[in-house]
Amino acid sequence: MGSKRVLIVGGVAGGASCAARLRRLDEQAEIYIFERGPEVSFANCGLPYYLGSVINRRSQLLVATPERFRDWYRIEVRTRSEVSRIDRANRQIEVVNVQTGQKTVETYDALVLSPGAAPIRPPVPGVELEGIFTLRTLEDADRIEAWIAEQTPRRAVVVGAGYIGLELAENLLRRGLDVTLMEKLPHVLPALDEEMVIPVEEELRRQGIEVRPGCALAGFEPGKSHRLAVLTEHGDRILADLVFLAVGVRPDVPLAKEAGLAIGPCGGIQVDDQMRTSDPCIWAVGDAVEVRDWITGQPTLIPLAGPAARQGRIAADSICGRPSRYRGTQGTAIVQVFDWVLACTGANERKLRQCGIAYEKIYLHPPHHAGYYPGATPLHMKVLFSPDDGRLLGAQIVGRQGVAERINVLAFALQTQATVFDLEEAELAYAPQFGSAKDPINQAGFIAGNILRHDVSVAHWDQCSPNCLNEQGEDSRPVILDVRTSSERDAQAVPGSIHIPLGELRTRLDQLPQDRPIWVYCGVGQRAYYAARILQQHGFQAANLSGGLTTYRMVQKK
Amino acid sequence: MGSKRVLIVGGVAGGASCAARLRRLDEQAEIYIFERGPEVSFANCGLPYYLGSVINRRSQLLVATPERFRDWYRIEVRTRSEVSRIDRANRQIEVVNVQTGQKTVETYDALVLSPGAAPIRPPVPGVELEGIFTLRTLEDADRIEAWIAEQTPRRAVVVGAGYIGLELAENLLRRGLDVTLMEKLPHVLPALDEEMVIPVEEELRRQGIEVRPGCALAGFEPGKSHRLAVLTEHGDRILADLVFLAVGVRPDVPLAKEAGLAIGPCGGIQVDDQMRTSDPCIWAVGDAVEVRDWITGQPTLIPLAGPAARQGRIAADSICGRPSRYRGTQGTAIVQVFDWVLACTGANERKLRQCGIAYEKIYLHPPHHAGYYPGATPLHMKVLFSPDDGRLLGAQIVGRQGVAERINVLAFALQTQATVFDLEEAELAYAPQFGSAKDPINQAGFIAGNILRHDVSVAHWDQCSPNCLNEQGEDSRPVILDVRTSSERDAQAVPGSIHIPLGELRTRLDQLPQDRPIWVYCGVGQRAYYAARILQQHGFQAANLSGGLTTYRMVQKK
């Protein structure tokens, strides 16, 4: 048997990982990478920071060069080579040199598709006007740099406030532009639930970015004082010299589709858990494929670099006859916005509701390290779990420090199908600069465990209708009880709530009704838990309003 | 049935957690805490930083006051109350008021012992001299503060370089003292293996601390120019105005012992997994008890705040008839030394060897976040795992940033009995400031997984006898092959190694012997892995020298 001939279409993340792994597994294989662009394996997650001059040199973004692929791996990289057609019957592809237009035909034993995803350009009027960019490749960045140098824009509009949109907005501001950030959905960073991103929207505004959630793009017109006017569905005109479209990406599937490969319900290339397409000689990896959502089990599109690299390895294993399997994608992600860090893993509440998956949720706001050591800042955490067995379903964390530490533990917990009871028992690193004897992860476990063991009922602010915050009316509505100190209450109190400080609760039980639910709150939920335990043991129907006034403030601002 | 009467001896960490949890579980119980000192529930992990004025106010260290226990929990705290005797037959304790000497007798239904551990004062000549301190309680700190204010010492010697010793040395330097740090064992921070702490010993010296590993204390003498002379077993005299003994702690068991409770082989109070002692009405928690080592299964003493708090909760559960179990202690810990952070979880290599547990080890030195984003600093990681099934056994990480993120994931992985294959599949948070598409955790999984799948053999520098670094001699000795570039090799090379850059390896295979093992190294182990794969597939007996020249430097300095 001669050596295998493996052709890889696309040399970023998934394709590059696959190629390198293939060589390590099979020294004899012939391996080729075809890349439409002039570079392979560049760090596209760094592009916003390159625009913001945080990353100074273009060369820093080149993870591997064609020379390195040749010298280290004996892999031939053909840049500026677009694969235009797959002839599955003959196991051949047609390659077009994008500079000369010359066509060649290459045969394969195995073909790996890693075409990635293309930024969506919404089909609105005026979208073809000059000054409207997307940022996905180094060439995009080069074009934008040249354009900025020539045009010296002053006002930028970023359309879409996902990961890239947020990073772009910050980096354009860093460059000295006035920035408006538009988002069609009601809040920035739709990967998280609405109440969780409130501190970040506030921070964006404090930094001088105009944030417009719930603001859908209607089109563009040429402007006068500024080059462009961005039209919104509400009829506003936002003036801009420069516009970035960051409204998401779409799997790049035309080649696969034209070849008759199965496309999944979300529009990505369909693969099995060995990353094999509907053709047994063709594999596909990265942003172009549909993966199984680790939580819901549904097919989904989750374009992330880590999963793409993992898929590349698995495709290589499969091509070499190894039994590796891709377990699905959790959607673990993190983004920094000025001093704030936002991170998530697993499903958010919106998705669980959409999929009809039963869940309970908790909020907590612990300091990121021991409160007695200077510099502690709060973490805002939301943890979603199964009310049946306590299995974790998802988590979101927003804070200034200590976010990555906790989301990574929760991500690993999701992977191992851990429960909130496992979080209670976690033995994490504690020194006063790094955590607490009861780490935020433990605290999340305690709070959720208490609910599942029926030690305390949980209530949520979004279950309080405006009326139920009022003491009058029907008896069945919950009484909202504030157990903080008087001075805390003077600063802010939930309208319609009644007040008994925790220290006085045991002696003032007669002031509370036995026939109505009592929903207790404090600052973050700890004293309210103690109060709820006291009340429950005295026969009251008590519940802890999860996360206390801190959650209330986040939910109120929605 | 009347209400339960629970007495708790010791109000820090374990005792305080137990008391609070008891109240939440049982509103009717009578709960008393007896504390020898004047305060309950103070943050003793903060004491070194209080001495260094990083924590400014004494009150910040008071986690909870007797008033709070009374108001929130209806728990009575009796400070300055020493429990002098347990009368198990009558379920009574004798309590001495340490100020008045007055004795009282209290009866119990359940008794919880949380006496903690006492700092060891080695019985060497002169140990009773003035100016020789231990730091365990707030009172210790008060005494030291007063003494420093009065005596204005200039030179301090810290005996013992464990967590507390290291923190003390840094904080005394911060106060402007000249500091010498002595350690009997061959290296600082004996919780980690020797080669891992090298960067930190260098840092301590760079900061101006005199570090003396392998230096055992022989005694003290009064000095002349300085108050004291510290005598070492090597016959040196180190002058000091102030000495801290930080040579470890010993479980405080006299009360338990005198009452006839079972004491374990390590000298701690013996408890079952519900924290119950040999007397069914007496529980014990915290630094005074022996726990099961999560990795080795052996009884052990691991005095840490997190486990103590967890044990307190479990004792409370058990007293209230709940089935909670303590799963054992991993020994997860973290300490900062100037800009360096050292962390560990599970067993170290020394312990595995002592216990005869089969293990394999790997070293890796990845950047703490994407190398293309400014500010990446190396993590030095050592991961120990079972050669049979890949189960994790322990991990150590040393670095400047990103240490807590990774040790916490590995700690949780140990808890869930995860394997190195699970680390390969971990989906962790990646943005250029926080990680890499292939996170250091994934990389550890890949490296270990490659070994277990026999894709590459691993070799270690400490298996190279001085002779085997020499090319001459017997044929069976390994050839050491350097696959770095010529300019890298010019900077430093392992003596006796031969040199073929990775890019030239395929064309120069004829220069290598087929009948001798070839141990390959590069800078950190990545290129050497590629090289070893090439060699292995061409029939050579190749192995990757784990962690490359970076590990070599650490091991050489041992």
Descriptive tags:
five-stranded parallel β-sheet, homodimer, FAD/NAD(P)-binding domain, globular, 23% strand, 558 residues, 15 helices, alpha/beta, 4 domains
Q: What would you say this structure looks like, in words?
A:
Two copies of one chain form a homodimer. With 558 residues, chain A is an alpha/beta fold. The first copy, chain A, has four domains: 5-118 and 250-319, FAD/NAD(P)-binding domain (3-Layer(bba) Sandwich); 132-247, FAD/NAD(P)-binding domain (3-Layer(bba) Sandwich); 339-452, FAD/NAD(P)-binding domain (3-Layer(bba) Sandwich); 457-556, Oxidized Rhodanese, domain 1 (3-Layer(aba) Sandwich). Chain A has 15 helices and 30 strands. In chain A, the strands form eight sheets. A five-stranded parallel beta sheet of chain A has the order 3-2-1-7-18. In chain A, strands 9-16-10-11-12 form a five-stranded parallel beta sheet. In chain A, α1 (13-25) runs parallel beside α8 (305-319). The longest helix of chain A is centred in the middle third of the chain and has 15 residues, at 305-319. Chain A starts with a strand and ends with a helix.
